Every structure is written in C-alpha cells, then in structure tokens.
C-alpha cells in the first residue's frame, strides 16, 4: 500500500475514512441498480447521509484497529524496551534477570501475522537468554577449571559441570597419559576402568569425532554400562591443538537435546586447555618427585609419602613397615670402575628392588647408595621377607662392564609397627637405619630386624 505519512495508523485512518466516503458516494447508485427509484436515492441529502455513514464506519474501524492491533504492538514495543535494557546490562557484564518468560515473553494467542510476530519475538528472547546462559556457563566453567591445577580435582569438577550442563545421568572423563587412556573421573558408571578399551572410545580418539550411540528403549543388556538403563551415550574426544588428549563419556536415560550438545561443544575448548595444563602440572610434579638417575622417588617426596602412610596406619590401626638398604662397598665400585659404572649399578639396584615390591609399595632413593622401601600394611616378617628376597636377588645378579662382571651385595635393616612402638615416621626410619648399621657391623650382605 502507498505510504502517505510516516505514521502507519494515520495512513490507515486516511485510507479507511477515504474508503468510507467513497462507499458513501457509490452506495446510492448501487441502490438504483437494486430497483430503488432514483428520485429517492439520488438526492443530496441521501448522498450526504451515505458519506456520513462511511465516515463513521471508517472512523470506528480505525478505532478498533488501534484498540486491537495497536495494543499488541505497544506491548511488543514495551517488551523490546525491556530486552534493550537487558542487552545494555549484559554489555556491562550484568545478567538478564529482568527478562524471565513472565516479564519478556508475549502471549501467542492468534494464528495470524500478529501471532507470528509474537512467536518470533519470544524466540528471539529465548535465543538471547540461551546465549547469555551459555556465555555464563563457559565463563564459570573456565573460572572453576582455572582455579584447579591438580588433575584429580580438576577432572572431578569438570565432569560434574559437564553432566549438569548436558543433563547426563552418568559420565566419565578419561585422559591420555604415557600413551594410555586412564580413568580420571567417573560417576554412575559400572566398570569404568574398562572404558579405555571400548571401541567407541578408541574410535573417538582415532578420528577426533563425536560418537553418538543410540540404544533402542526395548533393549536390555546384561551388565549394562551404567547403573540405569541408558537411552543414549555420547563419546566426545577432547582435542588440544588438534591432538586428542582425553575423552568425555556421557550417558542419559533420554536422548540428549540439541541445547545440551551445543553447550558441550562450547565447554570443550576450555576443558581441553585445562586438561593440558593439568597434565603438564602432573608431569612437572612427577619430575619433581623422581630421582633423575634411578626414576624412583627422591628423598623429599618419599618422606612425604611416608608421613601419609604413617598417618593412615595410625588412623586405621594397620601395620606399616620400612626396609632401609644400601650397597656394600659401593665406594670401591666407583673408585675401581668410575662413576658412570657406579650409576649403572644404582639403576640396576633400583630395578631389582622394584621387582620384589608389591603394587602400592613406595621405593625411595634415600641418599647416595642408600634406599628406603615403604611397605604399607606389611608386618615385620613381611618386611624381612622382602629384604631377604632383595638380598638374594642382588647377590645372584651382576652388572657387566665390557668383559667384566661386577658383583655386588646389599645390607638391609627392617622396622615395622605395631611390633615397634614409635611416635613418628622419623622414629621408624631411625630404627630401620640402626638395624642397617648392625647388618654392616656384622659382616654385610644380610638383613637385620629392629
């Protein structure tokens, strides 16, 4: 329609009143065609009455349009001003607290263009709210992960956040360390340790692509993945600079919605950066804890572990033993063959000691050629047996230097609680050290018990 002014309702009034007046002019001729005598209707007074009626009808129509359409448009404008205010608050770093559905949404109570406009406005408000929530979620997720450097705490916190944002009922987070996928955190999964061998997990790591596993609702599997009957499982690789460093596994009793999948994609880059930092921190921690020559724990870290194990033994009233041992006549090895060969002997010694210890035992290079084995839940007799196995193994082995075989022996001292009454881990080590010196004084190549 041709625009006459810059005001739509004023244009509408002009057109409606004009149409009413035109109908008033045409109506008398229509009456003549209908058989009414011309002398009755083609009169100035009848023309004036018809045009007056057309004017009244046009005016009434514009009033109705303003009341029906204008009211909805004013409501739409009012809501738009509220959204504008919220957008300004968002730009200033505030939220959209004033734009709840009750405050901003418009009721869609018609199926015409007005209803379509209201629905489009509501969709716009919903998209803005979702964008703001997603931005806030990413910001909060990144902030929480940035506050954690320890890998265990970081992955536990990340998994809780991911499950909350995707409404998953169970999940796990695996990270790649030393060429293997290892479980870092899990919740609600049965047998999570086996996830690293899953074909879907391996495919995600190999391709770097999301794996979606939809399970038929009627399917029942013995030993199902989770403690509930999953409907869908997501296996999402975590990529850092195009290199997979971990895998997210999420399971739900219902299919994941697009909102959850979108939120997961937004959170994944922050998780990748945090995981990479956590793995780097763990590597640095491990390097700081290890003796660079033998690859076993150094004295500082070893004594810290002993403190932990001693505290656990006291709390649980469980045994704790230590074996202090060192190489006999090691100085003569260095003097005769040189320090490089001496280093090889120490490395050989550490490998033999690890071979006789259990998983969970702690081996420490205490100083020079002296080593300390920390044996949680081991009695004095258990510790003596470990020391004796090590002594025999060292005596029967040799380190080759060219054509020469360098044979060594070891002396050991054993101390254990509760057989010994000690007040601190230092007392326990002191008792084992004293037993070691007794073994040295009595001829070496033997194990003595404190």
TrEMBL record:
Record keyword Transmembrane present: yes
Residue stretches spanning the membrane: 12-33, 45-69
Leading EC class: transferase
SUPFAM superfamilies attached to this UniProt entry: GAF domain-like, Nucleotide cyclase
Span of domain GGDEF: 318-450
Record PANTHER family: DIGUANYLATE CYCLASE DGCC-RELATED (PTHR45138:SF24), REGULATORY COMPONENTS OF SENSORY TRANSDUCTION SYSTEM (PTHR45138)
Domain (HAMP) ranges: 106-133
Keyword annotations from UniProtKB, A to Z: Membrane, Transmembrane, Transmembrane helix
InterPro entries cross-referenced by the UniProt entry: Diguanylate_Cyclase, GAF-like_dom_sf, GGDEF_dom, Haem_peroxidase, HAMP_dom, Nucleotide_cyclase, Rev_trsase/Diguanyl_cyclase
Protein known as: diguanylate cyclase
The protein's Enzyme Commission number: 2.7.7.65
Keyword S-adenosyl-L-methionine: no
Gene Ontology cellular component terms for the protein in this record: plasma membrane
Domain Plant heme peroxidase family profile, first and last residues per copy: 98-387
Pfam family, one: GGDEF
GO aspect biological process, one term: cell adhesion involved in single-species biofilm formation
Any one Gene Ontology molecular-function term assigned to this protein's record: heme binding
């Amino acid at each position: 329609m041709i625009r006459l002014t810059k005001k739509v309702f004023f244009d509408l009034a002009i057109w409606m009143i004009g149409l009413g007046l035109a109908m008033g002019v045409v109506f008398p001729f229509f009456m003549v065609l209908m058989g009414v005598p011309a002398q009755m209707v083609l009169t100035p007074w009848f023309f004036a009455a018809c045009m007056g009626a057309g004017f009244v009808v046009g005016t009434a129509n514009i009033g109705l349009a303003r009341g029906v359409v204008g009211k909805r448009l004013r409501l739409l404008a009012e809501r738009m001003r509220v959204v504008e205010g919220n957008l300004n608050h968002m730009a200033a770093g505030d939220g959209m607290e004033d734009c709840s559905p009750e405050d901003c949404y418009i009721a869609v109570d018609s199926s015409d263009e007005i209803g379509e406009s209201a629905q489009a406005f509501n969709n716009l408000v919903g998209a803005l709210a979702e964008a703001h929530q997603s931005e806030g979620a990413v910001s909060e997720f990144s902030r929480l992960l940035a506050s954690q450097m320890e890998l265990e705490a970081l992955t536990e916190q990340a998994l809780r956040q991911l499950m909350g944002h995707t409404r998953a009922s169970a999940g796990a987070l695996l990270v790649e360390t030393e060429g293997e996928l290892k479980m870092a955190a899990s919740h609600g999964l049965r047998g999570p340790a086996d996830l690293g061998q899953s074909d879907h997990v391996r495919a995600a790591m190999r391709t770097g692509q999301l794996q979606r596993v939809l399970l038929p609702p009627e399917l029942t599997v013995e030993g199902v993945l989770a403690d509930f009957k999953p409907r869908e499982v997501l296996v999402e690789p975590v990529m850092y600079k195009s290199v997979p460093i971990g895998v997210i596994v999420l399971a739900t009793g219902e299919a994941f919605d697009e909102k959850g999948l979108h939120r997961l994609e937004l959170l994944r880059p922050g998780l990748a950066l945090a995981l990479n930092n956590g793995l780097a921190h763990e590597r640095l921690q491990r390097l700081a804890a290890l003796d660079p020559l033998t690859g076993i724990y150094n004295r500082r870290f070893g004594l810290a572990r002993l403190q932990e194990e001693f505290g656990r033994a006291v709390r649980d009233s469980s045994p704790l033993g230590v074996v202090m041992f060192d190489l006999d006549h090691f100085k003569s090895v260095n003097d005769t063959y040189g320090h490089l060969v001496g280093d090889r002997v120490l490395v050989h010694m550490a490998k033999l000691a690890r071979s006789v210890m259990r998983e969970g035992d702690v081996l420490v290079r205490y100083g020079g050629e002296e080593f300390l084995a920390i044996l949680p839940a081991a009695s004095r007799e258990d510790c003596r047996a470990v020391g004796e196995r090590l002594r025999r193994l060292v005596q029967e082995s040799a380190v080759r230097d060219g054509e020469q075989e360098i044979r060594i022996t070891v002396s050991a001292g054993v101390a254990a609680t509760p057989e010994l009454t000690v007040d601190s881990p230092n007392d326990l080590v002191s008792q084992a050290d004293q037993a070691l010196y007794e073994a040295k004084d009595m001829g070496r190549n033997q194990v003595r018990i404190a």
